[in-house]
Amino acid sequence: MRVFLTGATGFLGRAVSVELEARGHAVSRLVRPVADREIGPDDIGGDLFAPNTYRAALAAFAPQALVHCGWWGVATADRNDRRQLDNIVATGALVDAGLRAGCRIFVGTGSQAEYGPCEGRTREDHAPNPKTLYGVSKVAAGQAFLSLVQAAGGRAAWGRVFSLYGRDDGSRTLIPFLVDQFRKGEAPTVTRCEQVWDYLHVSDAARAVVALLECEKASGTFNIGSGAPIALRDVVTQLRDILAPGIEPLFGAVPYRSDQVMHLEADVARLCLTTGWAPRVSLQDGLRESAGVAEIQMAHS
Description:
Blueprint: E1 2-6, H1 11-22, E2 26-31, E3 44-45, H2 55-61, E4 65-68, H3 86-100, E5 105-111, E6 120-122, H4 133-151, E7 155-161, E8 163-165, H5 174-183, E9 189-190, E10 196-197, E11 199-201, H6 202-214, E12 220-224, E13 230-231, H7 232-243, E14 250-251, E15 264-266, H8 269-275, H9 283-290
Parallel strand pairs: 1-2, 1-4, 2-3, 4-5, 5-7, 6-15, 7-12, 8-11, 9-14
Antiparallel strand pairs: 10-13
């Protein structure tokens, strides 16, 4: 299948690009031209927020499918920036350009932030209640994404992605923070870590995105997570045992936020039943890879 991919330089997008090629798809990536970045022979140089920079090349590529992983402002510091709203317009313009280019299969990536501070096992029919502009924009972009494609007679799926991890994660979320601290021989300052969260290895998330692409029955909203939540204290101690067995994390040194979510778990039954997808990377193996002491081969079904 000829697939156009946005966000290919991001954490999830890179893994999706690898998975698409491993599955035999012909991939063209939207790549913003910068001095230190090469544009592949099949890629399209352009800016997601300037449709005129990619529209003609996209039409020439004539994709059968489009996978949208691109987004401005994923970092925590940017999640209430007004520019989040620009992502909604950019998503609508992207879908329009894809439809005009003849594309009829669309997969987009949303976020657990769309649900807001819900507690416990969360299904797709849980009412969105986002508390950041990031979450608000993801909800609006997802609804527009699905509506535009369905109105044009195409098939669209929107994957709400829960917490991802993996070695190439450049964020300052918990697991990269812990790896950095333990590597430096320092005791990380953390909460009591009684929270129970849902972690999924990025390679499994990429497989889920491609499964939504390839499954003719996949339409609408799907959670993408492990469905196997774990106490954060166990994540901290497992990484400690891998990297710095002699260090005692400073549990309780950081107070819980007033809006702290204590139990965040994805119900992934719809994704599994519709596509046949299931996670393959165990948390133990994934943490060892994140710590840089093991390799994980991307598994391609």
